[in-house]
């Protein structure tokens, strides 16, 4: 009897520290995101992207797993927007003239907010592999259109003297030869108009983080914005109610339970 009890104590004294160490190792792998078999239900990320409408943007996303390979996503984006026919020029008739876009009526800034889903096409098999996902979103767009102000050369009662006047651009009267340059960007903020719209997006992303609880990804996609009322951006171009852009985004984030 004593022999059996001694053997039990001996086995326990060996196995408990081993089990404890194994538990610590498991917890360490979990905290460091080294366990492939763990499903992190929640995630959030930020991103920076360039787009075909001539600028850059910032993005935030929040996601939650619905199944092992499907997530429900919420996103917010902010970006500038340029018309395809915007070309910056400088008036060669005046020394030290400033650059401006001839015919531009409004500077446009966009905010989007939407919901969607992300689905895994190819799941990671180890740290060095890449996970491929596709996603789609629907949501609302708000475009802020600020009128463009220019510095215009105006004559005076003295034929030899001209002055520079800061005015809202008028395509019917402001000739290109009279424009000295663009005025301060902050001029005209109090006249900003809001144009609501809807958007749809489809994207492919490639997640390559070496930790399973972090996010590092490259995403490319296409976005379509549809406006009930066209935004007047360029004076000498047809007004559009639909704009389609493509983008490339870098994403960083984290996952948790």
Structure description:
The protein folds into two domains: 1-31; 32-256, Beta Barrel (Porin), CATH 2.40.160.20. The protein is 12% helix and 52% strand. The protein has one helix and 13 strands. The chain has one helix spanning 2-31; strands spanning 42-51, 55-65, 70-81, 88-90, 99-101, 106-122, 131-147, 149-155, 162-168, 179-182, 193-207, 214-226, 242-256. The protein starts with a helix and ends with a strand. The model is unreliable at 18-26 (pLDDT under 50).
The oligomerization state is single chain
Q: How far do the termini sit from each other?
A: 48 Å
The global form is elongated
CATH architecture label name of the largest domain: Beta Barrel
Kindly list the characteristics that best describe this protein.
single chain, 257 residues, mainly beta, Porin, 2 domains, eight-stranded antiparallel barrel, three-stranded antiparallel β-sheet
